[in-house]
Specification:
GMP Synthetase, Chain A, domain 3, five-stranded parallel β-sheet, 22 helices
């Protein structure tokens, strides 16, 4: 029997690993406790997993029940997730950044029986809305001294600490061991594994139903595409496990027997990379942009000889990259020059990642082409992937030997991806993993997909499901793209498309990415639908502003949302004009406002994956946007 046929449920992955890849004494998870990195073996993890399963069964949890988690990445997430998965329950994770109202909605929509809360802040959120959630029977704080928070509330649901869950579960394991094994064997590939609620850029979040088969096949077929992930690798986990991208990486790590180290926070990520020395890091484009910006600033700020060496090194790296991308090898002189560049510049940048990083996987948004090329010049391969929550998520991922920056790689095995004309619905091309040809190029249209990755549907929303999965089982992603040199290339989201007053279609993402090349700019939000020209809200980088104008933190704490200082506006205008030259005239920013602080999740302006909530932002700043169109467009 093939591995793909054996591994069709989520709990089968870890059982296969301890049976065929590593002994139970091998390190599985790594996390920091106070000032020390602590290693957890497979055996230790399985003991706690089984204990939690026993406790859940004793509570009366049965196959198909939904259990929620609002907790940061760490061993406790893994224990609870694996415990509920192996008894056939459903993981209904909640982003820690969501509001109390959103948490209440998800708990009630999913009918969650339990929720584990990771820290006092999240616990207090749950306590405030718990009595509005009639299905909730247990709240499980995963930290000490939780009583001082819960004693202030009269609750319908019981409260029990996570440590007590494990303690009680260990006493019950003997009684429930056969029941746990029977429950694990009774799980069908078509059974629901998790509900992942979409981030809701266009309205009420929808619970995406992903089956065990969706998730296991996505992991198995992704590693066919990237077969160099091994049992000797170490992933550093920091993207939220409540998001499908990090969840898939976690499944792949378990499948291959790789170690998982958990970063303490985004703020401590750089420090944690040096401490844990990961070989693989999965991230979002914005993080890579920040690493790029800091490296460029560090390498060029001193001026003089140091800057000349830095720029020469990257020019040398670019020459080597282009030769290698053409399938050739650099000559002896260029090899020698590259060795010097590696020693003087590249190695120092790589040391900050821990020195063992083999490659990074970027997902959750489009990676600007220049950012991918920068890391390629440095000698760190960026593999870009593409998918949605509704596609489990991976549809395509870059092959390591065929990196084409600006594309998201080859279609993974077992699915079909097509490009469809948005207006006529004509399908231009259907591509699979096996039909791949390096010269395949198509027109632009909506990306649609069918196969093992497509969700079961939206929870309790058959009408919404029917709107995105057609009668031929094609899931309509709402993304615009094409095939380029055989790889899938993403242009933008269909719903983001702006149509100006003259009927020109403008996709904001590639335009915004052009302006984001400026080291002065952190965020760009384009507007201009049904308008005569493109305008924007610009968020400058805080560090750059502080250095250029000698600003302190008080400047960023002022109540005025927008900056009117003409000197700052003119400073940003320099780069707006510079990068506008790379765009068609109808795509260029004609007027803009400078926002003091970034768009944020706390303000409801962006999703947990850093995507702008267009309708929210346009409504919130409608008056300021109208001001951008008060005058006539500038003449080119």
């Amino acid at each position: 029997m093939s591995q793909a046929n054996q591994l069709t449920t989520v709990p089968s992955f870890i059982r296969n690993t301890v049976a065929n890849i590593h002994p139970e004494s091998h390190t599985f998870l790594i996390h920091k406790v106070k000032d020390t990195w602590v290693e957890i073996t497979y055996g230790e993890a399985l003991e706690k997993i089984d204990a939690i399963s026993a406790w859940l069964l004793n509570l009366g949890i049965k196959k198909g029940d939904r259990l929620s988690l609002i907790i940061e990445n760490g061993p406790n997430y893994v224990y609870y997730d694996q415990a509920l998965q192996q008894i056939g329950a459903v993981n209904a994770s909640i982003y820690p950044t969501l509001t109390e109202t959103e948490i209440e909605y998800i708990l009630n929509d999913s009918g969650a029986k339990t929720i584990i809360a990771g820290n006092p802040f999240l616990f207090r959120k749950v306590l405030k809305i718990a009595n509005n959630c009639p299905e909730l029977i247990r709240i499980i704080p995963a930290f000490d001294d939780f009583e001082k928070h819960s004693n202030k509330h009269t609750l319908n649901a019981g409260v029990i600490g996570f440590d007590d869950v494990i303690k009680e579960g260990l006493a019950l394991v003997g009684q429930y061991r056969h029941a746990i094994a029977a429950a694990r064997e009774a799980i069908l590939p078509t059974d629901l594994s998790c509900l992942i609620y979409t981030s809701g850029t266009t309205g009420i979040p929808k619970g995406v139903m992903l089956t065990h088969y969706n998730l296991t096949q996505n992991a198995l077929n992704s590693v066919i595409q990237i077969p160099f992930v091994t049992k000797n690798d170490r992933f550093l986990s920091f993207l939220p496990l409540s998001h499908v991208f990090e969840r898939t990486i976690y499944h792949i790590a378990i499948l291959k027997g790789s170690q998982i180290a958990f970063a303490q926070s985004l703020e401590l990520l750089a420090k944690n990379m040096g401490e844990t020395q990961p070989t693989i890091l999965c991230c979002v484009p914005r993080l890579l942009e920040r690493i790029h910006d800091r490296a460029i600033k560090s390498g060029t700020s001193a001026g003089g000889l140091k800057t000349k060496i830095f720029l020469w090194a990257f020019e040398t790296g670019k020459k080597v990259r282009l030769i290698q991308e053409a399938g050739k090898s650099p000559g002896l002189i260029l090899k020698a020059q590259h060795g010097i560049a590696e020693k003087l510049v590249f190695s120092k940048i790589k040391e900050k990642t821990g020195g063992k990083l083999q490659f990074m996987v970027s997902g959750g948004g489009a990676l600007p082409k220049n950012i991918g090329e920068f890391f390629g010049d440095l000698g760190i391969v960026i593999l870009e992937g593409f998918g949605l929550t509704e596609t489990s998520p991976v549809m395509a991922v870059t092959e390591r030997h065929r990196v084409i920056y600006g594309t998201v790689g080859r279609i993974i095995p077992g699915i079909e991806v097509a490009i469809q004309n948005v207006e006529t619905k004509e399908i231009y091309s259907i591509q699979t993993h096996d039909s791949f040809k390096e010269n395949t190029e198509t027109e632009e249209g909506e990306i649609i997909v069918r196969g093992h990755c497509v969700m079961k549907g939206y929870w309790h929303k058959p009408e919404e499901t029917a709107m995105v999965i057609d009668e031929d089982n094609w899931f309509h992603t709402g993304d615009i793209g094409r095939f380029f040199r055989g790889n899938l290339q993403i242009t933008d989201r269909l719903k983001n498309m702006l149509v100006n007053a003259y009927g020109k279609n403008i996709y904001p993402t590639p335009v915004e990415n052009t302006y984001l090349k400026s080291p002065k700019i952190e965020q760009v939000f384009l507007v201009g639908d049904k308008r005569e020209y493109i305008a924007a809200i610009i968020v400058p980088g805080k560090e750059g502003l502080q250095e250029q104008f000698g600003l302190n933190n008080d400047f960023f704490e002022r109540p005025e949302v927008f900056i009117d200082d003409q000197e700052i506006v003119d400073w940003i205008s320099q780069d707006i004009r510079k990068f506008s030259n790379e765009l068609a005239k109808f795509e260029r920013i004609k007027s803009f406002k400078v926002k003091r602080n970034p768009f944020s999740m706390e303000e409801g302006e962006i999703t947990p994956t850093m995507k702008a909530k267009r309708k929210v932002i346009e409504k919130k700043y409608a008056a300021e946007i109208d001001e951008l169109y008060a005058g006539e467009a500038e003449e080119d």
